[in-house]
Amino acid sequence: MPSTICKQIMAELKKLGNPQTKKTYMRHGAPEPVFGVKMGDLKPIQKRIKKDYELALELFDTGNSDAQYLAGLIADETKMTKRDLNRWVREASWYMISDFAVAWAASESPHAFDLALKWIESKRERTASAGWCTLSSYLSITPDEEIDMEAIEDLLARVVDEIHEERNEVRHVMNGFVIATGSFVKPLKAEALNVAEKIGVVQVDHGDTACKTPLASEYIKKVAKMGRTGKKRKAARC
């Protein structure tokens, strides 16, 4: 039985739902139930709640896309268990939940690297995709001295060998992993750029959307030109 606060949040999300936003989300793959709450409208709720482990679990369990996204934003990464995160990645309603909300929460948890390496081996496309996204977010917030550079180098080599034969969503996020490495891990910038140039254009079917898969080499060079290579984020969730 949902708690009173969970019911209140769900009622608030329903009021914030926007028909056009819902239509956009569904065109990108969101299934029902979804209210269509704009990301910007979730921020005040996130700011008000801050972090709440139990509420995050309750909201995710509703199966509602907006609630699941909010759950990822307010999850207390210090309390999230591997079991919680494994369940979330299985039950994520679409890629915006698995690749963003779940991957962000996972990347900030103590289980980030272990779970990411497990997930990228999954036969389930969405889980594998979430694994690569978790790795990218992990690199964006983790000090270089805490990163297993050899393991990341091995993953970069794997991208070269496998990206063009991988599944659609996975191709896109593997490309993102190369960008993340070249942008956030200064010691591996040259190697990531070399990998980006080797893989070249990555073909991804984004369906009836305006989304595109960027050319990794250009992106890494752009970040370097701005003098931001190696600049870490304070948090993965945004």
Task: Explain what the structure shows.
Helix 11 runs parallel beside helix 13 (216-225). With 238 residues, the protein is mainly α. The protein starts with a helix and ends in a 13-residue tail after the last helix. It contains 13 helices and no strands. The model has no long low-confidence stretch (mean pLDDT 97).
In short:
By secondary structure, the protein is mostly helical.
SSE blueprint:
Blueprint: H1 4-16, H2 19-27, H3 39-49, H4 53-61, H5 65-74, H6 82-91, H7 95-108, H8 112-119, H9 125-141, H10 149-162, H11 168-184, H12 189-199, H13 216-225
Helix pairs in contact: 4-5, 5-7, 6-7, 7-9, 8-9, 9-11, 10-12, 11-12, 11-13, 12-13
Average predicted confidence as pLDDT: 97
In the predicted model, the low-confidence regions spanning at least 5 consecutive residues are none
- Rg (CA only): 18 Å
Secondary structure tally: strands: 0
Which range does the strand content fall in?
A: under 5%
Q: Which shape, going by the Cα principal axes?
A: globular
In which range does the helix fraction lie?
55-70%
The arrangement of helices and strands along the chain is: HHHHHHHHHHHHH
Structural class: mainly alpha
